[in-house]
Amino acid sequence: MRVKRVPERGAYDRGQVDAILDAGLVCHLGFVHDGHPIVIPTLYARVGDGVYVHGSSASRMLRTLQGGVDACLTVTIVDGLVLARSIFHHSVNYRSVVVLGRASEVTDPDEKVGALEAFGERILPGWWAEVRPPTRLELKATSILRLPLDEASAKLRTGPPTDDEEDYDLPVWAGVIPLALRAGEPQPDPRLAFDLPAPRVPPRYDGSPCGQTGQ
Amino acid sequence: MRVKRVPERGAYDRGQVDAILDAGLVCHLGFVHDGHPIVIPTLYARVGDGVYVHGSSASRMLRTLQGGVDACLTVTIVDGLVLARSIFHHSVNYRSVVVLGRASEVTDPDEKVGALEAFGERILPGWWAEVRPPTRLELKATSILRLPLDEASAKLRTGPPTDDEEDYDLPVWAGVIPLALRAGEPQPDPRLAFDLPAPRVPPRYDGSPCGQTGQ
């Protein structure tokens, strides 16, 4: 029962890295603080050869650091439960990316606006144009870090379980239960003062028909 | 647009920590390796006052370390996209737990079997009894770490967006698009040699009816 880090169908190319990053929503960002590892979940968005993360979560621990900090940004998408004939070979199908590098704070206002727009696109494509853009004060209050994609690798597991050859004769069901993040019915803010249609659910969360989990 | 770490509806009690840990599937485990942070996704299972993780992923970096290593184990469950009237207040509804502590390798064979059973329960409740149990050799090849829950905290965001008071007059839809991990149709292993029924999808992934995302 392992999440295999040695990829059976590994993919280290940038195209694969980008595809996984662009399919995720929340990353887990690791820092070293006073010698201890800290891992926090936060929103992210890839733009070209870099990944932006919201620094607000990390800002307290980063406040004293100047010029960048070593970070590890990991994105994992769970694709299914892998049920094998032995407990040992149980696993999970997943796609993940690990980015190692030095995170530095974004100070250029235009780059910050671009990053915010990219975050918006991650949450709901096209929605940026509908909502109030950030004010200068809000931009100032927003802390954004950038991590280059120079050192990024993708790992994944797909397909049915791999059992020991002698176990294939065991009379036990084996296979994959696919899992995917799916959207429910939009819930309007109780304070919504206008009769407006809810936005279309992002296609990547719009599993259809029910029970099917194609990507 | 923030994943707020200062909880609006924070919960630091152990009951909340346990509930979130028991609702997740994959954790992100952080270590410090040669001074650099490393974050890897791996399966985990809570048993009482500890969390077990598969050490296989981490074993390479842990090989040289004796007697335990500082770790941060973070579990995040995404519950929805929070669409505000301004880009600045966009967010994500989520539940997360951060466990800080010293991870130590489990050496007692009985405790290892218990941990494997707990992993099995996380993947599919009750399935442990159906499949081939681990052999002594497999147990030996399985590396399991335990992290105590002494220093664990939960954070979460729920509910509608929180907009600036003057923005509530903006004619833009605001609210939450709920998200949840949902199971699709079980996919039998092509090498399945018996006509066996697929197991029941774990209730926590069995969203019903389609489009509803109750937990």
Characterize the biggest β-sheet of chain A. Answer: 6 strands, antiparallel, barrel
CATH class category name of chain A: Mainly Beta
Strand order of the largest sheet of chain A: 1-2-3-6-5-4
Uncertain stretches of 5 or more adjacent residues of chain A: 1-10, 209-215
The share of residues in helices of chain A is 10-25%
How many distinct folded domains of chain A? 1
- Tally the helices of chain A: what do you get? 4
Task: Please characterize this protein's 3D structure.
2 copies of one chain form a homodimer. By secondary structure, the first copy, chain A, is an alpha+beta fold. Chain A has a single domain (14-182), classed as Roll (Pnp Oxidase, Chain A), CATH 2.30.110. The first copy, chain A, contains 4 helices and 9 strands, in the order H-E-E-E-H-E-E-H-H-E-E-E-E. Chain A has helices spanning 14-23, 56-62, 109-123, 136-141; strands spanning 26-33, 36-47, 50-54, 69-83, 91-105, 144-148, 151-157, 175-183, 187-188. In chain A, strands 1-2-3-6-5-4 form a 6-stranded antiparallel β-barrel. The interface between A and B is large, with 105 and 105 residues. Strand 8 of chain A pairs antiparallel with strand 8 of chain B, so a sheet runs across the interface.
